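Sequence in, structure out. Go.
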Amino acid sequence: MSNKVLSANDNVDDKLKQRKLVIRVVGMTAGFILFLVFLGIACATTTMDAQNHVHTNWWLLAIAFFWAMVFMYHIGFS
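Output:
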């Protein structure tokens, strides 16, 4: 009887660990891909004027930084 209860608890723990791993992998993948997308858009929309001043969209860079932090969170803290 005791082994069956332990086995059931281990099964539940394994399912919870599996779910957490899936969430981490999805979070890492989504964070990394969205980081690259927004960084690429920010680089593609960067322009230089006649005085050689570089103009970029800081909002896109901030969003890229946010997704980089999501990626890092899922690597280290989740």
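Check: The first strand starts at residue 47 and ends at 48. The chain has two helices and two strands.
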